[in-house]
Amino acid sequence: MERGKMAEAESLETAAEHERILREIESTDTACIGPTLRSVYDGEEHGRFMEKLETRIRNHDREIEKMCNFHYQGFVDSITELLKVRGEAQKLKNQVTDTNRKLQHEGKELVIAMEELKQCRLQQRNISATVDKLMLCLPVLEMYSKLRDQMKTKRHYPALKTLEHLEHTYLPQVSHYRFCKVMVDNIPKLREEIKDVSMSDLKDFLESIRKHSDKIGETAMKQAQQQRNLDNIVLQQPRIGSKRKSKKDAYIIFDTEIESTSPKSEQDSGILDVEDEDDDEEVPGAQDLVDFSPVYRCLHIYSVLGARETFENYYRKQRRKQARLVLQPPSNMHETLDGYRKYFNQIVGFFVVEDHILHTTQGLVNKAYIDELWEMALSKTIAALRTHSSYCSDPNLVLDLKNLIVLFADTLQVYGFPVNQLFDMLLEIRDQYSETLLKKWAGIFRNILDSDNYSPIPVTSEEMYKKVVGQFPFQDTELEKQPFPKKFPFSEFVPKVYNQIKEFIYACLKFSEDLHLSSTEVDDMIRKSTNLLLTRTLSNSLQNVIKRKNIGLTELVQIIINTTHLEKSCKYLEEFITNITNVLPETVHTTKLYGTTTFKDARHAAEEEIYTNLNQKIDQFLQLADYDWMTGDLGNKASDYLVDLIAFLRSTFAVFTHLPGKVAQTACMSACKHLATSLMQLLLEAEVRQLTLGALQQFNLDVRECEQFARSGPVPGFQEDTLQLAFIDLRQLLDLFIQWDWSTYLADYGQPNCKYLRVNPKTALTLLEKMKDTSRKNNMFAQFRKNERDKQKLIDAVAKQLRGLTSSHHS
């Protein structure tokens, strides 16, 4: 319906146009009719116009005919004119026809050219459209190619950013193409591939730092050692700021690298290139050994993919596992220092990496996580050190371990980890170190005491004299005045022991270095350890020497002399400790050295051993005694064994000249008392059931020899007859029996000034019983036969009275 209306409208419009053209033809001059005719030929309704024209011509013919009929003559004239016009029209027609033919001939090539131009224009539009579409597709293809290249070169984070641009910017513009749909379908797979590859890189990174943690830690500890050495060189000037600055600068370097390789630049993020580091850096950081780019890439990738929490949990879980492996010490770690060093290197390397991750990433690890790991590490490390250090028996190894622990603590302290517990544990190891030192010095003292010749040190020149005095603080003006050769009163073990005590103090001082202890604490530690050395180690060594079975009196005497001089040297040891610790002895709570007590105890033990040794020698001589208790002959000299015993005692006491007078006097008195007691026991022993007056006379000669020895003053310092009192019991008993002075004894018994005050009635009764039996069986008093009966009665009466005295004495 609409088409019909449109056709009708067009027909009316065409008709109106034709009508206008006809009017122009009718009204226009013949010379100007060309443009009007041309407009007819340019139009598409040429046939209809001709029809209109023919119709108009017929109309005009009818009008002409009417006019002619009305104006015939005029008509004839007009016909004539028209005939003329027809000829001209024919010519015009021919010309037009010819022109048209020529025009058609000439226009055919033009039409062909126009057709070709039309085709070219069509192709040009197609090409232009194709170029436009390709221009839309090319960026997509270029981005996809770039994505593939980045995947191939393992630049996964830039690849992920490219993938985002491709997905959200480029693909929507050409989404109707089939290849774009393939790309869209492949995008999730690419994301998973990037995710998996980056995770694989992270795993390789974790495995790598697990293997190389010891190298990282070794570098960090070397850096800390170099810094500490530098601090010592500049006389302990404050270096805390520079340490912090060095650490901060290291982080700035890493942060700068991260910024330059941020996702915006489409470069790998977080790559640390050691070669690009500034050559002016004084000490390269331990972090420069590690390429952290896999961590940064994986972190960025997972963050972009919305799985950051998954990545953080995985990273922390894996690092916790690695921490437990690192903190597990090898079973033989205590055998060598290298075992401890490798253990510490791994721990330091682990926490250096974590500290760097903390400061160069945002939230991958946090301070709470690091603190938790450090608390675990600290407890496990301290437990391992307590266990393994307890196996160390070498003080040098313990000292090296202490220095290593201090370096370990200082290294981690630079990175901000609290290490107070490590220093507290070092105080525990200090006690163990002291014990190992004591064991070592016990062997040193034992060797010194065993190898000593226990004789005064001889010197033959001033140089030798000064050497000894330089080793031991000794001053004696009388000895200095004596000509060479001369002898020091002490043996070689005195300067050796003195110097070893000083060496022990130095060894204790070495352990206290770098423990951040005050001078008072160091002084107290040294004094307590030295006291243990003196009161336990050295004391035991001296006691063992003194208690040896084969120790001689000469050695014991020399030990007493030596300990006397060592006791005097204790004040110099006090001064020595004061000089190295700068803590005055008068300071409150300062521990005093117990060396004086130690050497006094050793000297007293040696004295007791001398007394015991002398008594044993006396017993050995007494075992040689061979009395004939039944002899009737009266001897005229002392027994040979006793003469030898007295000679031995004289020579022995001659050696005691260098001993303190009291010691020599006590030894001499003890020997005489023991001799007297032993002789009394020999006389009264149960095996001697009978004895004669002759045997008693011989025994009396031996006692007189002992009394003569006592009177001779073998050791100076005794008052007159003091030493003889040791034999007073024997003397009074023998006088009573030899003089047969029973009346005086019985009459004066119990009086404070009686003649036989020291004679015990029981002792007298025992000896009298032995003589009574002899009288009965051997007729002891045969030469006094006339008085035999009276004598026997007297003996019985005396025995009876002695029994009475014994009974009353017990009651």
UniProtKB/TrEMBL annotation:
The residues covered by the Exocyst complex component EXOC6/Sec15 N-terminal domain are 52-221
InterPro entries for the chain: EXOC6/Sec15, EXOC6/Sec15_C, EXOC6/Sec15_C_dom1, EXOC6_Sec15_N, EXOC6PINT-1/Sec15/Tip20_C_dom2
Q: How is this protein annotated for GO cellular component?
A: exocyst; plasma membrane
Q: Tell me if Transport is a UniProt keyword of this record.
A: yes
Asked whether the keyword Transport is assigned, the reply is yes
Which biological processes are named by the entry's GO terms?
Golgi to plasma membrane transport; intracellular protein transport; vesicle tethering involved in exocytosis
Q: Where are the transmembrane segments?
A: none
Origin superkingdom: Eukaryota
Q: Which residues form the Exocyst complex subunit EXOC6/Sec15 C-terminal domain?
A: 421-770
Which UniProt keywords are present, listed alphabetically?
A: Coiled coil, Exocytosis, Transport
Q: Which residues form a coiled coil?
A: 82-109
Q: Which family does it belong to?
A: Belongs to the SEC15 family.
> PANTHER family of this UniProt entry?
EXOCYST COMPLEX COMPONENT 6B, SEC15
The function of this protein is: Component of the exocyst complex involved in the docking of exocytic vesicles with fusion sites on the plasma membrane.
Q: What is this protein called?
A: Exocyst complex component
Q: Which organism is this protein's natural source? A: Propithecus coquereli (Coquerel's sifaka)
**What high-level taxonomic lineage is stated for the organism?**
Eukaryota, Metazoa, Chordata, Craniata, Vertebrata
